[in-house]
């Protein structure tokens, strides 16, 4: 997801690349398993918790703590903030959301999820989606409150999850025979009004390309920052008027 090319054997991850070229790159994590990265600031959820208020502080919402203050206090013109959430990672789907998002019931509360009924597992997973929706709405509301700073948000999953279809659970099935449940992912973009006018973005043009992939991430972020780079590919930048879904494999 952080690579500019499918040739992932030897690449510089997007956050490291941007930090090396002068952007303020802040990585906040409530998860693990990141590649080697060299950024301006690497912050764990446990470092944010003491300043966080509310029930969501033990969950992904902790990553929103003092977010606006962090952006406004940056001395750089270009700021990339990565919020590495737990999202809908299994097997403990039931532990990924606060009580008010326990809407689909009953839910699976077993670590050994194959002991649950299919519906209990789906219910717990669907509750994580409700919580993620809430998380993204809260994030957008914060960005909307930014005065005089154009901003955009991109939300991309690293993978989907199998919930017992064809006897498969979780993720990590080798790509060549992984089911679509693990390969098809959400990819959301939001841009503030000032960002849309500053960049002359027409979100209508960016909607629902047939073949968006993880390789759109690097080039779309570079384009949003107006980074000039020989490795930048306008055809993979979904906010570019030259974006061509057919070429983005
Ligand atoms: Zn993952």
TrEMBL record:
Localization per Swiss-Prot or TrEMBL: Cell membrane
Pfam families attached to this UniProt entry: Sulfatase
Membrane topology summary: Multi-pass membrane protein
Keywords, comma-separated and alphabetical: Cell membrane, Membrane, Transferase, Transmembrane, Transmembrane helix
UniProt keyword Kinase, yes or no: no
Sequence ranges assigned to domain Sulfatase N-terminal in this UniProt record: 10-226
Official protein name in the record: Sulfatase N-terminal domain-containing protein
UniProt organism field: Thalassotalea profundi
């Amino acid at each position: 997801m952080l690579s500019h090319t499918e040739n992932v054997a030897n690449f510089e991850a997007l956050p490291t690349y941007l930090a090396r070229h002068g952007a303020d790159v802040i990585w906040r994590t409530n998860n693990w398993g990141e590649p080697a990265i060299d950024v301006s600031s690497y912050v764990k959820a446990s470092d944010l918790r003491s300043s966080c208020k509310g029930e969501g502080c033990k969950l992904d919402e902790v990553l929103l703590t003092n977010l606006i203050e962090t952006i406004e206090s940056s001395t750089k013109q270009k700021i990339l903030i990565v919020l590495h959430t737990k999202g809908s990672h299994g097997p403990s789907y039931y532990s990924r959301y606060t009580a008010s998002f326990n809407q689909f019931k009953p839910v699976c509360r077993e670590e050994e999820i194959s002991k649950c009924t299919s519906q209990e597992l789906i219910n717990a997973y669907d509750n994580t989606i409700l919580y993620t929706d809430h998380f993204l709405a809260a994030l957008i509301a914060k960005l909307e409150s930014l005065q005089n700073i154009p901003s955009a948000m991109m939300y991309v999953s690293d993978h989907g999850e199998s919930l017992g279809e064809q006897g498969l659970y979780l993720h990590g099935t080798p790509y060549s025979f992984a089911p679509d449940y693990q390969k098809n992912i959400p990819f959301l973009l939001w841009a503030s009004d000032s960002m849309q006018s500053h960049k002359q973005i027409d979100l209508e043009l960016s909607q629902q390309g047939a073949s968006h992939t993880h390789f759109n991430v690097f080039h779309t972020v570079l384009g949003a920052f107006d980074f000039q780079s020989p490795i930048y590919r306008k055809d993979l930048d979904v906010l570019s008027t030259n974006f061509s879904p057919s070429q983005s494999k």
